[in-house]
Queue: 4 jobs
Job 1
Amino acid sequence: MNPWLEKQRHLIDFTLASLARRKTRNIGLLVAYTLLVFVLASLTLFSNALRSEAKYVLAGSPEVILQRMVAGRHDLIPPGYLEQIGRIRGVQKKEGRLWGYYYDPVLNANYTFMARPASEVADGMIMVGEALARERGLAKNNTISFRSYSGKLFTFEVAAVLSPDSELLSADLVLLSEDDFRRFFEYPEGHYTDIALSVANPQEVRNVAAKLTAALPDSRPILREEVQRTYQSVFDWREGILLTVLAGAILAFAILAWEKAAGLSAEEKREIGILKAIGWETGDVIRMKIWEGLLISLTAFLGGFLAAYVHVFHFGAAVFEPVLKGWSVLYPKFALVPAVDGLQVATLFFFTVFPYTAAILVPIWRAAITDPDAVMR
Amino acid sequence: MIELLDIKKAFNQNRPNEYWALHGIDLAVEAGKVTAFRGPSGSGKTTLLTIVGCLSRPTSGRVRFKGEDISALPERFLTDIRRQSFGFVFQQFNLIKGLSALENVILPAFPTGRPRAELVARAGELFERLQLTHRAQAKVEWLSGGEQQRVAIARALINDPEVIIADEPTANLDTALSMEFMAILEGFTAAGKTVLLTSHDPLVVESSAVHRVVGMRDGRLIGD
Ligand SMILES: Nc1ncnc2c1ncn2[C@@H]1O[C@H](COP(=O)(O)OP(=O)(O)OP(=O)(O)O)[C@@H](O)[C@H]1O
Ligand SMILES: [Mg+2]
């Protein structure tokens, strides 16, 4: 084998042996370091996943949703409303939507039932979200029964499990035909939950909203851009909190690295002296310590990052639960779809692995350039 | 083989605590022989050995090794010479705790990039010669003084140096182990190696294994 490689192997061997010799100290360091990466990576992954979820949610939602208000509360759209809107310039499509919540006592969870045209979902069939399918153990062609609010039992066949582009959107979703929807909820004929309107030109959205309120005074248009702004402020607030945590974590890490840097023990200095005396070059000592720094920081990075991945995407960022309370009011339950941004990973890597490795080098370098004759005394 | 020309060494030069440990040493060391330095504590023996072994530089004067002036070489080259040509047995042994005897012995060869298998085989030979095979895997802090010393000797030999430098090699040993060390010394001479050592121990300096005794006092040589 190439002597250079062989030499690096020797250095790594020695590093591993050295690390094993100071087990408690190094394990403590590794744990602290891993924890730091875990927190930072969790935050990064989490905020990134939320952003991409929100993007999906917004991309799929109509520009304007019209709700009818009765005594300040959201009520059904009575028959004739769709026609009453008539033709408004700029509106490409208007459609009455049917959806509602269903409480499943088996899982103790709320599902969103949504009606689809018969061309998409046939009578007696349903399509279910990924999370729901997982929780209830459903697959294509299985049948499932739901007891309706009036006490009648309805049996459906699963036509498909929805692809999880965004679980936030589809986790608890059950799609069924319009007829089935009306029968299941005993929904009055001709009524809708709300009306969705597509507007191609963003400049027209406000005009459309104004015309809608004029035509139907008891209705409330909800604009996508407003929803977007709500999301944005929710994000900003959350990111503020995350940033605070981040700053704290980085500070803690700086202290840790400094401690490690300043705390080159007499024992370690003596060992560096011995290595130099028996023929190691300053460069060899430094290389060995770089390997040590890399081994520790890479292990911590990988461990912390994987733990964070599992934490965010399998346990729904359970540690951040308190911060998320506001969010979970908006959306009762969901698992985030794994979305990892390469640049973010690289940033995280740079800010955790690099400073540590750099921080340990300075004192090592200082110790490594001293004359080795001290070991003779 | 080694020539010292007017070697002077000051510690803390140009500071209030400036101290001259060597005041001009001229000496030629013959190859293949055992040379012992003897002198009272503080006479500069260790300081002289560190200069010969390229562990430190003289404040003034020249060191010639095999005819080449090495006192002015940059650190990198000094380290190369030190690794290839000198093996050290320190007074405190200076083994690295927590590592096995074997790991300690092969340590000086790491920068050479020789394959591990080769190093382990070479260490095995040395252990056999020093009757230490059964302790090769033991951590060094569990070894007795004599065993530690033999590990230190094996470590000095792993790169097959021409010169062995031993500072007070028997200071921590009882008579029996010191005698054993003298036997190992004779083995070195038989193998053609040059040995420089310091000692207070009459057993060493008066032994037939030592070819030349150089006296030192206050940083100067006093007659052979
Ligand atoms: N780094 C140093 N700084 C200041 N003084 C030093 C240093 N190293 C050695 N000395 C001094 O130089 C003198 C010679 O030291 P050296 O270690 O060479 O003596 P020695 O002959 O080996 O003594 P011993 O027999 O006790 O080992 C001593 O007085 C010592 O105090
Ligand atoms: Mg001494």
Note: The two ends of chain B are 18 Å apart (CA to CA).
Job 2
Amino acid sequence: MSGDWSANAHSLFKEHGIKQVAYVPDAGLSGIIKASLADNDIQTVPLTTEEEGIAVAAGAWLGGQKCAVMMQSSGVGNTINMIASLTTTCAFPLFMIVTMRGDYGESNPWQMPMGRAVEPVLEAVGVRCLRADTAEDAADAIQAGLMMSFHGGEAVAVLIGQKLIGAKAFSAPAAQDAAGD
Amino acid sequence: MSNNKLFRRDVVTKLMAVRGDALCISGLGSPTWDLAAIDHRPENFYIWGGMGGAAPTGLGLALAQPDRTVWVLTGDGEQLMGVGSFSTIALQQPKNLAVIVLDNEHYGETGMQAAPTGRGTDLAAMAAGAGIGNTMTVRNEAELDELVAVLKKGQFPLVAVIKIDVTTGETIMPPRDGKFVKNTFRSAVLGPDKALHPN
Ligand SMILES: Cc1ncc(C[n+]2csc(CCOP(=O)(O)OP(=O)(O)O)c2C)c(N)n1
């Protein structure tokens, strides 16, 4: 299931001429990360923290390239000042894909507060959120978001809900397998 | 000056003399005033906020413009906030990117509070530890000349940390409208047509 929307995302990146993909990993992003690493026409930029991606995207735009920034919902918390200060002040286009945690069916309490905060906090710094809960929604929202950001000049985040990517199980015996939160 | 430490404006003057057509990103605070005072031109992107963002902005630009040289000019405090970006840059190994840190061992812009760089934190060592191949710490005129030679040769990626005096120069403000600075920069680098009609 998640493979579907990831493959769509990658072909939409190609269609829209995305040349840089910056990310901090999340399980829900692994498909797109793999696709972009395998693509010689895209420079894949792993980040140590998500706010770097906001700055990398601004720098890419200064140099005439489009960069997509991808992160888990917790990572949104790391980006806020960079988005407000750099993206919004200078009206840089911004296109983000955020895979949600602390969302539909979540069982890890540590993910809940940031999951709830993603939308209001992004909106507060000038980012429009497009929510997607099915593979079809995701492809639509990614297509729409790429138009709105790189042509409309907006900052847009496509939020991929846990209904689509699935909630991770945290029952005691399974917890050991559930590595990488 | 009573001590022998380098004065930031003299340092920046010497560096800009060999800048050629390098693109320049400046970090918030004094480095932005230094760049505006000494080498104001459309190919400067002056950052007034987004602390920690100067080096990764330089990285995105360097990847987008592999045939242009990109210099990031920033302060020790600004760089410490984005220190992970040394690792991010090292992974990409951009052959056209230099990060030049004007290290006064203080947070100058906010009232000259002491910074960790004056108390044992070594930014050049952190860059080397992150995997940046060319790193140097400059403490005097002779070492500054070495840096100038490295910049001319383009031995990049490079992180150069220049120990400077706390004395600041006159505050020279570049345009404060970020949209204007962005569009000016893009027009200079991409040409006005591509800058204003992206596709
Ligand atoms: C996120 C954030 N935290 C704190 C500040 C306040 N601030 C502005 S400039 C600055 C210090 C910059 O120090 P440095 O980079 O060493 O430059 P200097 O002024 O010493 O040359 C600080 C802490 C800020 N602008 N943004």
Note: Chain A has a mean pLDDT of 93.
Job 3
Amino acid sequence: MNTSLPDTPLLEVENLSTTFMTPRGPLTAVNGVNLTLQKGQTYGLVGESGSGKTVFSRSMLQLNVSSNVQTTGSVKFQGEELLTKTRKEMQSIWGKEISMVFQDPMTSLNPVMKVGTQVIEHIRHHLGLGKKEARELGIELLRSVQIPEPEARMDVYPHECSGGMRQRICIAIALACGSKLLIADEPTTALDVTVQHQILNLLDFQRRDRDMSMVLVTHDLGVIAGRADHVAVMYAGRLVEVADTKTLFAAPKMPYTEALLRSIPRMDQPAHTRLLSISGRPPDLANPPKGCAFAPRCAYAQEQCENEQPPITTHADGSQSACWIPLGTPASRDALQKNLSAGRPQTLAMHNVASTTSEVK
Amino acid sequence: MKFLKNPFPAMWRLYRSMPLTVKLGTIWIVAIVFAAIFADFLPLKDPNYQGFIMGESKVNEGPSLKHLLGTDDLSRDLFSRIIYGARVSLTVSFVAVVAGSAIGGFLGALVGYTRGKVEAAVMATVDVILAFPGLVLLLALVTFMQTRSLFVISVIVGFLSIPPYTRVARANSLSISRREFVLAARAIGTPRRTVLFREVIPNVLPSIMAYALVAAAGVIVLEGSLAFLGLSVQPPTPTWGGMINQARKDIKLTLFPVLVPSGAMVFTVLALNTVGDWVRKRGQVRGAAL
Ligand SMILES: Nc1ncnc2c1ncn2[C@@H]1O[C@H](COP(=O)(O)OP(=O)(O)O)[C@@H](O)[C@H]1O
Ligand SMILES: [Mg+2]
């Protein structure tokens, strides 16, 4: 490993793009993504389903399964380029330097192998321990992710465990070899709400305890709040807004982020408050729109939005967004007014919700 | 493994969980395999002893206590001939299962996981072999052979069994390899070879086993056809197909010597299919639950 300079970011993604060669033509699922993660921090990656979060997190690690995939750009981990590494070289990074936790714990464990065996084999492979030490370490790990009676759990098959239990096992495996970076791809989406919180808190606790960094991928901004230092919002394969978490929640710049924020139920709102659902669907990535990908669903969209791709710009508060008419500017209020009087349905839908929750902003 | 430590309660529980037809099928298979293996130690008549020479029995006799299933046109004991004949059918079909699942199954699982040029080449070869009707190819190969011993027949049938197993294994391996746990194994740095042997193959195995039971039935029919045409293991070794063929000429006098070997074949095929089907369905239910 490089002895990296103290100020080298742990993870530095530059202009990462991933294209699938599909029968319908090239499909760019990730488009020019930049992201910098400092050591010890958590990065939240948010976007609705299909926005390219999974493809992005797998692309960073060369873990895309299909053979028709092409990844360009640069991913530097501790200053070392990952995308040019061979599979052999990646094998000592996967699971040892960088670990992943997947969305569906029901399918991410081998159904025909005992839980303990899966944990032990992984430990032995990376740390070269003997059978007995590996087993003891395995039990210790299961205990550390708060699995009751870890000794007994070692000898059961995955289908004998609940979803939450399985996700804890997956986390234990991910933590086993002292990874410096944990990529959690919607780790709680498949779980019950109560279990979700336990798992998120567990991840957070373990991250601090082991001095790791984390990329927390989710479709739910509510999951990010209070857990991530920075947030990147992804839409149609691009990052449309990047900010530190406080700024993003307090002053979103991109209408998509605002819409996402409005779609989280909040405790400080009256119970009858209507939640905003974003009308329409994300664009077809094989046929991307000419302008901003969100424009067809955006309450503020003007002609320019439909025709020109907005560049990513940095604002005074340090946040970045890709939007022609950033929120909070007079231009954005004018655009909204104009769309309202023109009767643009996307705008009306949002205005209706906004007026019933007039106290929010 | 729990199963190895104390197999009998586990097997009994498995047996209890079977529907009646599957129970009957299992009993039939176990009985005929047991009889074929231990035929020399069972109180059976010599399958080639012609009782009429000493005036002990007549030709084409019906069932009696002396000859449980009667005698054939040379007054040989049909019951004993069925069991010795089972040796040929079962050996050929066993070799076919072993060769098919070991070679074909492994090859299919391998290329389904690794993909690429090797897969294309292997599957093209498989498709070419499968494009010929099985019996025609078998006849062509067998007619080339000087000797038609059990060994030669088994090798040829075993070889021809490889392609369909390869196809089944590859299809399953393709879908297993895309499952998240295989990706998860890769994502924690498991070497490819370990992924193949620990993640992919154990999960492909149940479908190969289910296919093997059904395919074994097919092989029994195939060997029977070969024997019927006089191209399988040569007399005096009894074979089911050979027995049917031999009894054919007296079919106007008595149906019984045809019915006995045919029945043995039909029941065996039926039993294998029933059990195979049950195994496959159980696998599906389990697969869905996982
Ligand atoms: N193997 C593939 N081949 C073609 N398209 C794919 C493939 N994998 C993902 N995609 C496409 O990439 C886009 C992003 O998918 P994904 O990253 O899974 O979204 P998310 O994780 O944000 O829900 C989707 O439109 C999907 O159809
Ligand atoms: Mg996803």
Note: Chain A has two domains: 11-228, 251-353.
Job 4
Amino acid sequence: MPKKSFQVNGKEVTLDLPNDIPLLWVLRDHLKLLGTKYGCGIGQCGVCTVHLNGEAIQSCLIPFSSLDGVNVTTIEGLSSDNSHPVQKAWLEESVPQCGYCQSGQIMAAAALLYKNPSATPSQIEQAMDKVLCRCGTYQRINNAIKKAQTLISMKGDAL
Amino acid sequence: MSYKISRREFLKISAGASLTLAISLPAQNISAKSSSLKNGEFSPSVWLEINKNNIVTVTVAESEMGQGVLTTLSMMVAEELDTKWEDIRAILADADQKYGDQATGGSTSLRKNWTRLRMAGAATRKILIQAAAQKWKIKEEQCNTNEGKVINLLTNQILSYGELIEIAASIPLPEEVFLKEKKDFKYIGKPIPRLDSPIKVNGKAKFGNDILIENALIATVVHPPVINSSIISFDASRAKKIQGVTHVLQIDEGIAVIAKDFWSAKKGAQLVDIVWGDKKNNKINSAYIKNLLTKTLTNTKEHNIEQDLGNADKVIANSENTHHSEYFLPYQAHASMETINCTAFVNGDKCEVWAPTQTPTRAKDEARSRTQSFFSKIKYKILKSDDNSITLHNTLIGGSFGRKLQTDFVSEAVQISKLIQKPVRLIWEREQDIKNDYYHPATLHSLSAALNKDGFPIAWWHKATGQKQRFGGAFLPYNIPNIRLQGKRISLPIKVGPWRSVNHYYNAFVVESFIDELAAKSKIDPLEYRLKLIDDPQFINVLKLVTSKANWGGKLPNGHFQGLAMHKGFGSYVAQVAEISLKDDGSIKVHKVTAAIDAGIAVNPDTIKAQMEGAIVFGLSAALKGKITFNNGSPVQSNYHDFPILKFSEMPVIETIIADSDKSPEGIGEPGVPSIGPAIANAYYAATGKRAYTLPIETS
Ligand code: FES
Ligand code: FES
């Protein structure tokens, strides 16, 4: 089994695991970072979304073999005190219902706004279509993203 | 004026609501002996505890699956206890007889707890006042409370609840309390932010899948590909070659593959060679089911009559102006984002379970019987159901919609743990979750009506069939002199069960589509048509609220069309207007849904809005996106690619209007689902002149 070293939430980790194990299960079963969720395993639901080198990716599709030297951020690394503007906006808009998809939603939204703080509605749609929510929180997600954009531009909240 | 509920009256209310232990409990709790000081905390009833620092912990004996019950039930306690909202904590109750029968379903949490939790809060406040009065040596009437403190009205001295718990614990709970009137509510009626939001935006919320027990292994289960086929033999040698796989075992439901992590279990599961026998259900496919439904629907001699008012059949047979339609609704899956999971640790005849369950009581019973009787030829004598050998913790649920009312996953996890003698966390792959659901059953309906010369129905005849088919929600809100409802269930080995709004889903679709057909046939505006046929003021109110907000009959953007539907279910009245347009390929784009709901007193209006949004999205997925079909005795769909649900970009703007009410709170989790499907179908008719006789709507 190959050894790989990479960063998770700013910490260096070195693991020895089979090549094909997806990042999702590396995080959940081997690093005990349980905020990232499993929903489909085939890149269809996005609840497993994390940041890989700053990009939103579906962690169930990223094999361990490709992790050498990468930089991963999970919901635990976004902020643990809900001070990130996306989390703040999520709270202000009372987004979560069951909450199971919300780590994925928040990570997708945060990656979008890092890149493009003034993303247009169609850019928001494109990014957020990748994460499903069976509880139907989409309207609030949309409102929260707009609120986060305001927080970032008006108050200069750091992403 | 405050109204008074004496203990006797309360018992009466209790008996009227239900004879279960749960409902009569608060009466017992508000009797003399139950206040106590345990571990330095004051527990005046099973529902709440107060500690020295004024922290009030509310025990919620319902399941939290996203509907906000931790928050709304705590608001009821906080309201009558008169405490600071910031001091409220809510916890989920383990399964325990002292809470009565724990089952969350049918949108009953508010209705079940409205009186008992406010009573618990009010009784506690009363003894805290008595405690302060004792300490100050004044009369109770000379004290008042304010946000967690008792105030001496003579001296303005203040004692916090926390400072009074020791004295209060020695005071018997009162036999009667006053509950506040609506106008005096401080928390009830306010959009209080949910208590569970912070942990749901920082990843700390622990769902069933996130329970870490030391030395626990991970299991997944391979279920029969053909419904109910049995296992003749299996060969685990290839599976066991996967590094990390520790066991491959047969359990009642299939083959369990157990490993150090999920990925190894999943890979192992793909490599177990199983010889399945008994494939007699191979013949089941969608056409077979449709045939059986059609035959059953036509054979009216065997039908049960559910309602028979006047002579609907004769009036229709003799009338010149009649209308007839058939509707079919397919099987649907729950497809919660969290797949089925359960953690169990069987240790001798003891068992501890962590389950995302809507029915802690039944889940505990399942765990008990599996722990104590599995593989035992001798029928096991079930221990007293309040024995301490079984512990069942109810976890946060990552979506359920009825699925986790079943206990199959508890059975599996407990069997596995018992066999391997280690703690185990069972996780189903999404494919197992979709293919082994307890589906919402398909139904077939035949509707006939006779119309008078003004175009209004004088007879209505609804025949229906399906697995578990029921007429809840089919009883008409419309004044029609001749009504017959009849039908018969079909028997199939497909597992079916409750799914958000249950029978209201299909019955509202057919009733509200058919009434729209009749209005169209008579060339009368659908709103006017309905208003002529109803006299229930709550229905009239929601119809008026929703149509005026949605600008019904007014000018719409080019190419936009509206559809209207209404339904009463789970105690609440809902009316919805859907505004749609057609895309170039003829498919439906939903722009806006306006909904009005009368759910009695709105305990937390923001939660009602969220539940309406969720219910509408749930209904839209079923109206526009996915369904379950069968082929060769097996469900065809397996994951979100072939069982699609609504996506972000397909989300309409949803506006919810909450009707003002002084009545007790009613259901909010399910009432929004039934009327969205027909509202969309009716809008589609307005847009195309084509009637949708099935959901999802076939637009091509
Ligand atoms: S679990 Fe990765 S996309 Fe669904
Ligand atoms: S909040 Fe439940 S799935 Fe999104």
Note: The two ends of chain B are 61 Å apart (CA to CA).
